[in-house]
């Protein structure tokens, strides 16, 4: 008997499973499928990315759907359009021998009227991003009043992206009698909250331990100065010639910048983030799957749709703001039984975050050294030698051998080998011969941090329409930081000061490296006057010369009496931005 048959699956799905070459169910499939097939229950399933969660809920959902009825019976919510399309395609493959069953993807970036027409023709299963689904409900383009099953896939990521209100609203249009199946990689308190609110006595399934990382992934960290972060990334790539990786950055700006630098330096790289059009994102992902791109630089949100089994490395160019997000990142490698490596590049002030991640994933990191130039040259040479040894001989070259032998007849075998390998060796040797050691001593790193806070100078102030409250709101929005990270905001006439915890120094300087406000450059530097609140530091160019308040930036709600209105406006803008980026 087929191992999937033993789980209770029907003949149509078993035929599709055989066509796809599935041999044995994964642990989460083995635990979830029999429960979902045989019981009408809510369920919370915790399992890492890449463990087969889509089949774990997809197989039972297809079995329970009535293909003879055209009404929508199942709804799957997923955080991003990439993941939405991925789930839809997989469900279509699973149900290929049930021609009456139709699955429709609903996501932003595509025609909403075309999607509405597909639903009207009959869609027993809808897979949707929360933002687009809410939009269609508001327009009365979809009816989910009679669904029997609702799946929240990657629930932790949807809540982390700010979709709680959308999910709450969407579920309010579904019947209380439905079964809710929640699948998640981690179990932060937000997921626990939604489970309590929308589910009744759910069965809980855990593969491994809560929030743990994949057993097939090893975790490494490298300590460098912040200014050497990109140089460290290059060396890690050069030290792993067969690297096929996803590189994670915190912001879209950093993602684009790192990808452009890699391309300029001759690497096969590309960026994947929310500012790309759907067509651009599809082209990038197609190139990555075909291995035409060796290094994909991505934001956490955009990477949710990456489903590639052979990723060798995940490189955390910057650690995520939410520690639980690291589990999602590292889950991009070590999939389908293969091993993988998750690397983290950190500055001294960030080392304590490694300990926090270790507690979450219940795994230890190994501290490693950034390789020097000599080590990289050696690695590249032996890699080339192995490539030559494994290469098949193309006998089409036989025609040219006499002429080639004639050109090279004066050289011995040893001289020819030296000349051949010198081509590759010289390229790396010339680049790295005077390269400095990027590694820094990590011990006692906290002692150099003083109070653990960094103070900054910024060349905007009262004449630009700011007071301390509106400047803090402006910085929170631009830097995408919480109130607890920003402190000691002190506004002067033409300049100001503010503090962040030292963990965010790199982000602040990176975001404001080339930041313009109404065409004028906003300059942010680490303040030399860190010990006094505000101080009396003045400099030429501290404000926008000759610009009166009426000509400068006018933040909304600049009067204290307008504070609540400003906060509401800011929150709405933030939520709209999050939804548009994630659809």
TrEMBL record:
InterPro entries: DbpA/CsdA_RNA-bd_dom, DEAD/DEAH_box_helicase_dom, DEAD/DEAH_RhlB, DEAD_box_RNA_helicase, Helicase_ATP-bd, Helicase_C-like, Nucleotide-bd_a/b_plait_sf, P-loop_NTPase. CDD domains: DEADc, RRM_DbpA, SF2_C_DEAD. It comes from the Bacteria. Residues 2-30 form the DEAD-box RNA helicase Q domain. Keywords: ATP-binding, Helicase, Hydrolase, Nucleotide-binding. One of its GO terms (cellular component) is cytosol. The keyword Membrane does not apply. This is DEAD/DEAH box helicase. It comes from Aquimarina algicola.
